[in-house]
């Protein structure tokens, strides 16, 4: 959290369970369209053989003065397009947040999209955290007057937690598609990871050896299909990105040990779909207290279970409601501060 003479008004850990009802995506008539441009930043890394890296991002600038910056971090086999799929069948989380007053920066993590692609063995969680930490420092230098909210999805939530745990530039953290629980979840049906060089979507990209992606036609695992447009499923397959064997242990270690979560000292909002594979089989009564326990040092922990949604919250028909819920929490959180 910033050392800026402010304290969080609600210092005690308070958890409020919320539920989002399923509903059709809503239009945003009357909201000025945000400006969208590319942002490429060279950052220091200094771990696992990676000295520096280029982080590519898409920047969405609202029409008026931003209320803050949202840095969006996608999960494994996704890049920034998870937050802006680019088709009319689903609202864009990035664009909607910008329409609602946020300056949004949706990143391609190292090894994905248009960011640097070091050898697969060097695409580790340590590299992801170090590179994004440096990236956040650069964003803070560009927009010093604005609070920064990190929003992660799935493995991107793990990375965002790692950054929030070590950075003094982060003001709040939103964790989506990831949670902590006392009992092990079932990964039955999880897509097999295959060499990206053999994949119909990615084989022409000349990726480094040993980069991986989901097997063709398997991405419906991340969706609650009854509430997902077929066009979205097809676009999800067309836009898929990569992962590596070296970054997978970081997800497991954080899920089981929670080292990053224990060190987070900013307010946290955990948002999970009721049909997410990580939530299935969980005791619903344990969901809220388990998150509060995991983020024990955070000054506030809130949770939301999104009805009729799976793992990919931003790609379901009710994504607009979920995005508005996140934006309301983030707005309330950054404004509920008073001088110490």
UniProtKB/TrEMBL annotation:
Keyword entries, A-Z: Hydrolase, Signal
Gene Ontology molecular function: any one: hydrolase activity
InterPro entries linked: AB_hydrolase_1, AB_hydrolase_fold, Carboxylesterase_BioH
Domain AB hydrolase-1: 71-316
Keyword Magnesium: no
Coiled-coil regions, chain positions: none
Alphabetical list of Gene3D superfamilies matching this protein: alpha/beta hydrolase
Signal sequence annotation: 1-29
Protein name listed in UniProt: Lysophospholipase, alpha-beta hydrolase superfamily
Species per Swiss-Prot/TrEMBL record: Lentzea fradiae
């Amino acid at each position: 959290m910033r050392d800026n003479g402010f304290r969080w008004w609600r210092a005690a850990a308070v958890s409020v369970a919320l539920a989002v009802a399923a509903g059709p995506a809503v239009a945003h008539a009357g909201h000025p369209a945000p400006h969208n441009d590319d942002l490429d930043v060279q950052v220091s890394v200094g771990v696992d053989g990676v000295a520096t890296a280029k982080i590519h991002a898409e920047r969405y600038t609202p029409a008026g003065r931003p209320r803050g910056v949202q840095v969006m971090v996608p999960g494994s086999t996704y890049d920034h397009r998870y937050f802006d799929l680019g088709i009319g069948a689903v609202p864009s989380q990035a664009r909607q947040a910008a329409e609602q007053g946020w300056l949004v920066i949706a990143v391609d993590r190292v090894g994905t999209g248009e960011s640097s692609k070091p050898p697969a063995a060097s695409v580790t969680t340590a590299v992801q955290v170090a590179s994004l930490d440096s990236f956040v420092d650069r964003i803070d230098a560009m927009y010093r007057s604005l609070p920064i909210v990190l929003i992660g999805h799935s493995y991107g939530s793990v990375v965002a937690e790692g950054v929030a745990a070590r950075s003094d530039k982060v003001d709040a953290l939103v964790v989506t598609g990831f949670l902590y629980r006392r009992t092990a979840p079932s990964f039955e049906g999880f897509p097999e990871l295959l060499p990206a060089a053999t994949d119909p979507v990615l084989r022409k990209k000349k990726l480094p050896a040993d980069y991986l992606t989901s097997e063709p036609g398997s991405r419906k695992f991340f969706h609650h299909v009854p509430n997902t447009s077929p066009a979205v499923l097809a676009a999800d397959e067309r836009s898929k990105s990569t992962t590596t064997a070296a970054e997978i242990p970081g997800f497991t270690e954080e899920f089981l040990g929670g080292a990053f979560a224990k060190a987070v000292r900013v307010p946290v909002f955990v948002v999970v779909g009721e049909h997410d594979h990580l939530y299935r089989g969980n005791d619903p009564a344990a969901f809220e207290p388990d998150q509060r326990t995991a983020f024990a040092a955070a000054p506030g922990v809130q949770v939301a279970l999104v009805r009729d949604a799976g793992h990919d919250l931003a790609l379901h028909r009710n994504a607009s409601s979920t995005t508005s819920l996140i934006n309301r929490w983030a707005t309330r959180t950054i404004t509920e501060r008073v001088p110490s």
